[in-house]
Amino acid sequence: MKKHVITAIALLTFGAGTLLSSAANASPMEDQKSFQEFFKKRFKDTEFSDYKNGIYSIHPESRKQWEEIEDFPPYEIAVERGEELWNTAFTNGKTYADCFGEDVTAVRAKYPHYDAENDTIATLEDDINKCRTANGEKPFGWKKGAIADLSSYIAYEGRDAPVNVKLPESEKEIAWYEKGKTFFYAKRGQLNMACADCHVYYSGRMARSETLSPALGHPTHFPVYRSKWGNMGTLHRRYAGCNENIRAKGFKAQSDEYKALEYFQTFMSNGLAFNGPGARK
Amino acid sequence: MLNIRRMLSVAAVFGVLLVPMAAVADDAKMIEEGKKISFDTKKGNCLACHMIMGGEMPGNIGPPLIAMKARFPDVAKLRAQIADSREMNPNTIMPPFGAHGILTDDEIDKVVAYIHTL
């Protein structure tokens, strides 16, 4: 027994050490490759393309229940409300299509991307509100409600488009990328945990009765309807939730921290397909 | 003189008997409190990650907490693991319960007393 315990610990520690060290000073391309390889090795039964389904890609026990939920998706109303928003003109007569282009199916996969003009990461939600204020409308609240409705509709129409964030190359792009990467691997909060602790090194393990999802594919299916919330929420809402669970202060939705994190996480997920909105526990 | 000697010998007898009995009672109380703190989701929440006999819905992030006397003959080492797990493994996911003030010194003593019985 004693020996078993020791071996288990040695394995755990070893597992945690390898990715961390290889992630320390590599190029974004190398990072992406070792990140994806890590999960391919860890979950041998999971098809690469299936990581877009989050926890259900590695947890057959809950998958069936989820598939039943997807028969009558709880995000359907949000998609409908979002469509109405998309088709309703602002008071100045313009519409979202004037900001995003006529083809709504092409919008989702453009985000996130580096916005050179403003030296920031453009996200779908941020651009929704930019579009509103540019047209004299009040911005939506950031984490739920109308913003999640419109984002749901755009995600729904943009399903199956490949995740293909452009490789960060310029100094400034790399600075944003590194900011997101550092955030992802940094310990924080009173409980002193990193995103990577739960969603890389111990992905597939259980914290109490919650199986930890792989970080690969995290951003593909947002916004999500979460039973625990009882409504839709954006990716940044989820980020703040996970930060608060480890007793760290959550950052604001669309803060530079979360934009960088979304940029890093989505670049790591290149090669998957967008499939939002999603339904989760 | 005789009285004093008698008193001393009485004290000696009681001393031998009383001290350990009190200690046993104290230990039992400490262990019970330690168990409460370990299971409390707002305190130790050890079950989030460790299987512990008698605890419901344990996670499996860390090793099962069993055979602790064999694994930790030195209680000080066990205390160090709980007070600041980073001393053993700088990258550990296990929270530094003492160093980050998640538990007080007194609470850690109780948790250690309990965990060492497992």
TrEMBL record, chain A:
One function term, GO molecular function aspect: electron transfer activity
EC number, UniProt record: 2.8.5.2
Residue positions of the active site: C242 (cysteine persulfide intermediate)
Location in or out of the cell: Periplasm
Cofactor requirements of the protein: heme
InterPro entries linked to this entry: Cyt_c-like_dom, Cyt_c-like_dom_sf, SoxA
A Pfam family annotated for this UniProt entry: SoxA-TsdA_cyt-c
Cofactor stoichiometry and binding remark: Binds 2 heme groups per subunit.
UniProt binding sites for heme c 1: C99, C131
Enzyme class: transferase
Cytochrome c domain segment(s): 81-163
Annotated GO CC locations: cytochrome complex; periplasmic space
Gene3D superfamilies reported for this sequence: Cytochrome c-like domain
Predominant location category: periplasm
Keywords: Electron transport, Heme, Iron, Metal-binding, Periplasm, Signal, Transferase, Transport
Reactions the enzyme catalyzes: S-sulfanyl-L-cysteinyl-[SoxY protein] + thiosulfate + 2 Fe(III)-[cytochrome c] = S-(2-sulfodisulfanyl)-L-cysteinyl-[SoxY protein] + 2 Fe(II)-[cytochrome c] + 2 H(+); L-cysteinyl-[SoxY protein] + thiosulfate + 2 Fe(III)-[cytochrome c] = S-sulfosulfanyl-L-cysteinyl-[SoxY protein] + 2 Fe(II)-[cytochrome c] + 2 H(+)
Record GO biological process: sulfur oxidation
Binding sites annotated in the UniProt record for heme c 2: C195, C198, H199, C242
Signal peptide: 1-26
Quaternary context: Heterodimer of SoxA and SoxX.
Classification via NCBIfam families: thiosulf_SoxA
Similarity comment: Belongs to the SoxA family.
Record's protein name: SoxAX cytochrome complex subunit A
Source organism per UniProt: Leucothrix pacifica
Name of the gene encoding the protein in the UniProt record: soxA
Automatic annotation (TrEMBL), chain B:
Highest taxon above the source species: Bacteria
MF terms (GO), sorted A to Z: electron transfer activity; heme binding; metal ion binding
Listed SUPFAM superfamilies: Cytochrome c
UniProt keywords, alphabetically: Heme, Iron, Metal-binding, Signal
The keyword Ligase appears for this protein: no
Keyword Metal-binding: yes
Domain Cytochrome c intervals: 29-118
Record's signal peptide: 1-25
Full protein name: Sulfur oxidation c-type cytochrome SoxX
